[in-house]
Each structure stands twice: as structure tokens, then as C-alpha cells.
Amino acid sequence: MHSNLIDGIWRNSQTALRNDNPSDLDDVVGEYASGSPDDMREAVAAARAAFPAWSRTTPQQRSDILDTAGSEILARRQVLGTLLAREEGKTLPEAIGEVTRAGQIFKFFAGEALRMQGELMDSVRPGVEVLVSREPVGVVGLITPWNFPIAIPAWKTAPALAFGNTVVLKPAELVPGSAWALADILQRAGLPAGVFNLVMGSGHVLGPAMLDAGIDALSFTGSQRTGQSLAKACAVRGIKVQLEMGGKNPLVVADDADLEQAVECALNGAFYATGQRCTASSRLIVCNSIHDAFVTRLAERTAALRVGHALAVESQIGPVASEAQLANNLSHVAGGQAEGARLVYGGERLKRTTRGYYQAPALFADCTPDMRLCREEIFGPVAAVLRAESYEHALALANDTPYGLAAGLCTRSLARATHFRRHAEAGMVMVNLPTAGVDYHVPFGGRKTSSHGPREQGRYAIEFYTTVKTAYLGS
Ligand code: ADP
């Protein structure tokens, strides 16, 4: 059994999680500890005990450890990518790309550890100076989802450690392998006992235990339902909270768009990584004059996508990550048809030589904004095309959602690109690019119900992982 890491010690638990390969259910990736509330309490206590010394380490000490971890992740990207592809189901190139990103994130925050800055200014009162400085928040709990098994743990853990916090990570039940590998790498990179703790297991059991054990801050990525209930629980306990909860991201195709480029953006944004990205383009809003040509060409390209085993070189789309997710996708496909949307291509479960959760990407047309297909995050390879009368109509449709993570536009007009950048109600805007696929050195996050709290990643990550102190210095 792969153990939990608590206070620098690898500890087994009474029960185990079986990590299955969604490409091949006869391939068991491994057995992983499933922690108890006591394990969580001990992990939080260990992080609490380790905090004073870790928060007083020099930036150089923290930077060196993060840099060492980043180097190992990058050096082992092939092996770690294979593990990730086996447990989550994204294709091997996608998985290696994700691991590479995780390594680069550790390298980036190795630099950021050296750049924790403050401000010194004169007071409005004579003879007084004001010093604004940043301090770590304390013990940070991290709860992560299954769709990015190493990148999301990395983009939360690296800034937390860089700025002097101690960490308890609770990864998703479905993908403990990549989080375990990360814990192993961090441990060997030289982190003192208790600075980083890993407790794998059920969110329903470990989430409440984590909050009750007395963490200072919680960073969560996952479903809206879980995120919102955690936010309430954090509010009454005085826990600083940051939430990322997905999207229903629009890609607007203006009538002056380059057709092939727009189709490529839609194909990538909607279906790559099996549509299991919170930034996926699930609403394709296409202006009238280009609509029919776009739907015809996208259907051809979708039909030509090769769905298969994540490790097979010819696969372009891996399996859905789990049985529950596949059932959810299939029910949305059936629901879309029942609502009157036109299924142009796909949607059905596929058989392959191995037993896995394969699904043909589903393309719907003739959708209306009130359909569930256009309102609910599906988190699978299901895209809905909406017809727009004009660019202005398309923009209104794009913003007609409670979510606000990413929004894309395909156009050849600079004026439209600028207008869209200013008026799209989203945290991230992409022009002539897929809505999914973001850089690691700039802020990530959304508006409305997609996100809560400060942005993640890039220099903005410091807002969540530090707290500001204002000191008045008299003479
Ligand atoms: P998904 O539907 O994508 O699995 P969830 O929000 O259920 O989204 O899961 C995201 C993460 O939240 C996972 O690590 C999961 O274990 C955890 N989780 C689920 N329920 C709870 C809960 N009640 N409290 C804390 N964490 C939870």
C-alpha cells in the first residue's frame, strides 16, 4: 500500500483506495491509503508544529528545496506522465505536458520565494513611518480534484511552501498516485518533517476533519456544490478560503473568423483532455453567416478524432476518468436530445480492446441558452453549438451564464478582439486560441460562481498564501 505522509513518516491506514486505470479496468495502478479523521488531525497538528521553524527559514532554503523538487519532476516527466495517464486517462503527451507544467511551477515559485516584498512609506503623521510586509498565513489545507492530478497539487503546494506556510494536501480519491509521487519527491528534496503532509482518502470524511482540526487557510478546486459548502464552513471558523469551481466557457466564432482556425480552437477546447478541463469550451456560439460551414467542418474533424487507450500512440482522446463521470456524460447526451437539441455527432459509449470508459465526443447543434446542455457544467466531451444573429448577440449569449472562468473569441478584427476582451465576463479571455490551455506564470481564475478569493498562480498567488501586516514606526 502507498502510505500517507504525516509528520515526515509514511503511515499506512486501516483501509485502502484502489487506483484503477480508466483505459483498462484490468490494470490496477496501485493501492493507496485511505486516511481516517485521526490521520487528518495528526497531519494538521504536525503542520502546526512545523510552522514556526519553517516560517523562519530563509528564502534561499525554501527556494533550494522547491528548485530540487522541480528538477526531479522535470527529469522524471516520462515516468510520472505514464503514471498520470494510467490513473486519470489523459493521453500520454497530455500527461507529460501536465507533469512538465508541475515541474515548471516549482521552478517558478523557487524564484518567487526570493521575491517576497514589502513597502515602506512615510506616515501622514510627522515622524512616523509605515511598513507594509507579508507573512505566511500558517497551516494551509489543499483539496484537489481528479482532472489535473499533479498540476493542481503543484500550483497550490509550491506557492504555499515558497511563502513559508506548512501544508496538508488531500488529493482526489480517483487519482492518489500523482499526489503520492509529489509527496515522495518533496520529502526527498529535504523538507523538514511536518512541513508537507499528504492525507489521501474520502473527501466527505477528511474534508470536515481538516476544517475542524484548525487550519488557517483552505484552497479548494472541485465542484461548485462542494466548494460552496466548504466556503460556508470556513466562514464560521474564520478560515481564509480560495475556491475554483469550474465553468461553462463560451467560444464565440464571429462571422469574420478564419473557419479552419475556429474549428481547431473548438475541437481542442471542447474535446482534448476528454473535455475534462474546467476551462473547456462547452458552448460554441457561432454567428449566422459562418454557422453551417462551422458545424459541418467541426463534425468532420470530431468524427476523425481517435478515441483510445491513454498510452496508445495513436490515441488523441483518452477515456472518461470514471464510471460515474461517464454515466453523467451519457445522461447529459440523452437529456440534450430530450430537450430538442440536434445531436450532430457522437455521444455514445465506445468499445475498445481493453475494458475502459470510452465515449465518442458529442457535438450538439440547434441548442438554446435555457437548455441544461448550455447551463450546467458537464465535465466531459460534450459541446453545444448556439446560433447567434450578430457579434453583439453572441457576446450576450457568452455572458449569459452564472459561471465566468474563461471566454474565447475567433475573429480577424482587432476592434472586436478588443471589445470582447473588455466585455467578456470572465477571468480569462482567449482570442484565436482555445479557451483551455493556460500559462503557469500568470494569474488563473474566474468571476461570478466560478471562483472565490484571490487568483491562483503567477505572482498573484502571493495574495492568498500570505497575509499583510501594516506596521507604524514612531521615532
Ligand atoms: P468532483 O465532482 O469533480 O469529484 P468534488 O467537489 O466532489 O468534485 O471533489 C473535489 C475534491 O473535493 C476531491 O478531493 C474530493 O475528495 C473533495 N471533497 C468531496 N466532498 C468533500 C467534502 N464534503 N469536504 C471536503 N472535500 C470534499
Could you explain the architecture of this structure?
It is a single chain. The chain is of the alpha/beta class and 475 residues long. 40% of the residues lie in helices and 23% in strands. It is built from 15 helices and 22 strands. It has helices at residues 37-55, 59-75, 77-88, 92-112, 151-162, 176-188, 203-212, 224-237, 259-271, 288-303, 323-339, 372-375, 391-399, 414-423, 462-465, and strands at residues 4-6, 9-11, 15-21, 24-34, 119-122, 129-136, 139-143, 166-170, 196-198, 217-221, 240-244, 249-253, 281-287, 342-345, 349-350, 358-359, 362-367, 382-388, 406-410, 428-431, 451-452, 466-473. A seven-stranded mixed β-sheet has the order 14-17-18-13-12-19-20, sandwiched between helices. A six-stranded mixed β-sheet has the order 9-8-7-10-11-21, with helices on both faces. Helix 4 packs parallel to helix 5. It starts with a strand and ends with a strand. The structure holds adenosine-5'-diphosphate.
SSE map:
Elements: E1 4-6, E2 9-11, E3 15-21, E4 24-34, H1 37-55, H2 59-75, H3 77-88, H4 92-112, E5 119-122, E6 129-136, E7 139-143, H5 151-162, E8 166-170, H6 176-188, E9 196-198, H7 203-212, E10 217-221, H8 224-237, E11 240-244, E12 249-253, H9 259-271, E13 281-287, H10 288-303, H11 323-339, E14 342-345, E15 349-350, E16 358-359, E17 362-367, H12 372-375, E18 382-388, H13 391-399, E19 406-410, H14 414-423, E20 428-431, E21 451-452, H15 462-465, E22 466-473
Parallel strand pairs: 7-8, 7-10, 8-9, 10-11, 12-13, 12-19, 13-18, 17-18, 19-20
Antiparallel strand pairs: 1-2, 3-4, 5-6, 6-22, 11-21, 14-17, 15-16
Helix pairs in contact: 1-7, 2-4, 2-6, 3-4, 3-6, 4-5, 9-10
Bound molecules: adenosine-5'-diphosphate.
Adenosine-5'-diphosphate (ADP) is lined by residues 143-145, 170, 172-173, 203-204, 207, 222-223, 226, 230.
